[in-house]
Amino acid sequence: MPDASIGIAGGADVATPNAAWAARAPDWELIRDLLGGTRAMREAGERRLPREPGESLAAYRIRLARTVLFNGLGRAVQTLSGKPFGKPATLSDDADPRMRAMTRDLDLGGRDLTGLARDVLRAALTDGLTHILVDYPAGGGAGETLADERARGARPYLVHVPAPDLIGWRAGPDGRLDRVRIRETVLERDGAWGERAVEQIRVLEPGRWSLWRRSEALKDRPWRRHAGGETSLDAVPLVTVYAERTGFLTARPPLLDLAWLNLAHWQSSSDQRHILHVARVPILFGRNLKVGEDGIEIGPNRLILGDGDGADLKYVEHGGAAIEAGRQDLADLEDRMAVMGLDLMVRRSGGITATERAIDAARADSALAALVRAVEEGLTAALALCARWMDLAPEAAGRVTLDPDTGLDAREAEEIDLLLKARLAGEIDRPTFLAEIRRRGVLAAA
Questions:
Q1: How far is Cα 446 from Cα 434, in angstroms, rounded to an integer?
Q2: 399-425, pLDDT tens digit by residue?
Q3: Among 133, 163, 212, 303, which one is least packed by beta carbons within 10 Å?
Q4: Are 402 and 118 in contact, with CB atoms under 8 Å apart?
């Protein structure tokens, strides 16, 4: 698979994302906006909340400032990403003691095995896939031996690379990764007290690496090689974890449909807030009134005179039918979002029967359970690369295991489906509906 950034019209460079990345970027952007909460959605402005024809910019900004996000997507991600971590992640007993020690600080930043596994699983849930890079500290200088490296505590470490940061890739004739490009932002000192964010592109190829930067003062200058070197690995040390794979290093976010539903709720909520504001402010209507030199004064101790039999003065208020329809629409959307993550937790099997044995056999067949296995295998593969860098056998890395009890059996899934239908038909109220699905583990406890 060629790197699609090579040959893109308009002068593509090392920082140009490839076509596959660009095709999925709008989905990632939508999900990032929603997970960013009310502030991020307000900052997105007309991208997420269109301005109505004829609506002034001032009126639009007021309406936008009143709109508050109901984060159904965030709640689903929190529930699903928490399911496999009722128990800490473990490393098998046959792992080398040095590998076991590594798992207490896998990224040299304090994240242990459980913390990194949770971040990897959450990212795969939101983006469809995510990556783990195996890196190694820069050498101590020419002539440094393995003993010298160990003496200064040098060891490989893991870097979590979210899917939006991997902007380009290329595969060789054998189908293995031949090159990847990773967008990074690093903080550097700026004077005695300040710091500045520097954007760079990391290029990894079998046996070598390079960093590319451009002038901070002149952003239109071309990207230039800033640093580089060689590695002892004959492959790109990147491991990919897929949630819903669509191709080589491509995937569909499994919660994308929920994200679109959440966007619909955001827009409907804005309409509802606006119509409530209109309904709460009655309009004073007058007809055939006598107007003095100073106009008409409204308030206590004021007398307003009519002019003829058709004179009238009254407040006109909203009837309220649209308000109730909007309220019901929001409630229905919230109920659907509450169980949208259910599909990832349902244990599926080609031959489910009514017996407990068949239900137990289907226990590992939910999409969430499959993702848990993918995270286990990805972390195990990443640790095996670490072992190679430490001159250990791959099996010395051991095997990572997460809590396997992540799904709902067919009976539980059917019960929740019936609860949702009863709720949408108005046969049960929202508190009962939410309490029942929380009891079955679909929602986190309030």
A1: 10
A2: 999 987 665 556 666 777 777 778 777
A3: 303
A4: no
